[in-house]
Amino acid sequence: MSGAGRRKPRARKRRIEGTYPIDTGVAEIVADPDRDGGYVLEVNRVPSSYVVPGAPEVLAFEYMGWLAGFVDKQGPFTAVHLGAAGCALPSYFAHRFGNRNVAVEVDAALAALVREVFAPPVEIAVAEARAFTHALPAGSVDVLVRDVFAGPSTPRPLTTVEFYRAARRALAPGGIFLANVGDAAGLPEVRAELAGLGEVFAHTAAAGPAEMLAGRAYGNVVVAASDAPLAFAGDVPVRDGARFHGAAGVARRD
Fold first, then answer.
1. What is the DSSP letter of 156?
2. Is the four-CA dihedral 248, 213, 224, 27 of positive or negative sign?
3. Residue pLDDT, tens place only, 56-83
4. C-alpha span between 242 and 20 (Å, rounded)
């Protein structure tokens, strides 16, 4: 048979699931048995991102949709995402808004793995989140997202009034600070963060499931802060941050 009549062999789909050593421990990419092409990225056995390569509009982690619900930007803008993992939310932003996104990841090996395996359409900077924020030029960022965890909690240096002031300095007029907070019943972390943010920003808010905002459950709450009035287009209740301040006390300081 001539070469013209031969069928070309099909390109094999690359198998990307597996366990990979990274600088801070181990990363595992697990294929979703219920969705072809979906993967969970686990960092040290903690699910950190859900990624569908080629489908950046998929946000399987609900809190990411709540973060995006505070963003309604027209025209070009810059977003910095502290805590990159699989770059699910930065990729969603790039797809939805067509904006510039910088994802900040402290683990260089994890960043290299994500670039190679998922090829997100965003910049990845290898840096510690607090140092990166303090080094940002004044007024250079329109949206600053903090989604950084050490185990179940946000590292203390990223929850201080001093850090919030650095974030405020980096934001352009009308810019928004957003954070994912894991909290217990009673919302001690959310209350403390809203109190600290309230010392720096004119407007604060929290969004999450009703049972979380009522302090009856453990889970995720998104907090937002800005010097401009906040609007929310998500699918969960949102509360003005001032409603939480009474029992908040003072945010942690260095």
1. G
2. positive
3. 999 999 999 999 999 987 789 999 999 9
4. 44
d(CA 184, CA 77): 34
* Nearest-angstrom CA–CA distance, 146 and 154: 9
d(CA 135, CA 141) in angstroms, rounded, equals 12
Other beta carbons within 10 Å of 233: 12
- Single out the residue of 149, 59, 151 nearest to residue 96, CA to CA: 59
Q: Is residue 228 scored above 50 in pLDDT?
A: yes
Starting from the edge strand earliest in sequence, which strands make up the sheet with 141-146, in order? 123-126, 100-105, 78-82, 141-146, 171-183, 219-226, 203-207, 238-240
Tell me the sheet residues that pair with 47: 42
> Rounded distance, CA 190 to CA 206, Å?
8
Strand partners, 46: 43
CB atoms within 10 A of CB 223: 26
Q: Under a CB-based contact definition with an 8 Å cutoff, are residues 211 and 237 in contact?
A: no
- SS3 assignment, position 124: strand
The β-bridge relationship of strands 238-240 and 203-207 is: antiparallel
Nearest to 90 by CA among 25, 144, 30, 34: 144
Tell me what pLDDT residue 12 has. 45
